Amino acid sequence: MKKLLIFTLLIPLSAYSQGKADLSAKESTIFWKGTHIVGNNGHEGTLHFTSGNLTQSANGTITGGSFIIDMNSIKNTDEDDERGRKNIEEHLKSNDFFDVKKFPTATFTIVKIAPTTLPNKYAVTGDLLMKGISNRIVFTALINQNKEAISVKADHTLIRTLWGITYKSQGAFDFGNLKNDLISNAVPIKMELLFKKK
């Protein structure tokens, strides 16, 4: 009975020690870039979030977080022609790439975050679930915070074939016979995120 009472008393203290900061979806963006293996041709654009949050300990240390990415929000930003831009976006939404009708969202869940030797830089480990396939990724993030908000900037390169996106991908035996229309498996992304503290 005594142990049960102590456990009951600890529940509100534990809950109180945890803080949360909600992602400002309107002020947060993923920038992506796709290129061909041969030449410098390619496309770039943006993706946006549906929602997200970071959890913090009582002393402000970030302990975790989760995010939902709106795959229907994918936009092309380098094509000037409106019809060409829409064609690119629709192709990226098709089952050649992200198949957004079947998989309208992707999720990222932080499983570990640790400080590095550089000021305000952290090693972030998390699981990215996209097209029904989950892969663990690791990247370095620049994180700054004040009493009201947390800003995060990070770069990473995704290998798209790990999530089953193989359209015009570079195979193991393509190095000696590269085609002009092969698309790089590596997709650099840049994230700029803003969180508002509760």
Give a description of the structure.
This protein is mainly β. The chain has a single domain (20-197), classed as Lipid/polyisoprenoid-binding, YceI-like (Lipocalin, Beta Barrel). Helices cover 14% and strands 50% of the residues. Strands 1, 2, 3, 4, 5, 6, 7, 8 and 9 form a nine-stranded antiparallel beta sheet that branches. The longest helix has 16 residues, at 2-17. Mean pLDDT is 88; it is low at 1-17.
The coarse overall form would be: elongated
Q: What is the annotated CATH architecture?
A: Beta Barrel
| Quaternary form | single chain
Bin the helical content. 10-25%
**Unreliable stretches covering 5 or more consecutive residues:** 1-17
State the distance separating the first and last CA atoms.
Answer: 36 Å
Q: How big is the Rg?
A: 20 Å
**CATH topology call:** Lipocalin
Question: What is the CATH class?
Answer: Mainly Beta
The fraction of residues assigned to DSSP E strands is over 45%
For the record, the count of structural domains works out to 1
Q: Count the DSSP helices.
A: 2
Could you spell the SSE succession in H and E letters?
HEEEEHEEEEE
Give the mean pLDDT: 88
CATH superfamily: Lipid/polyisoprenoid-binding, YceI-like
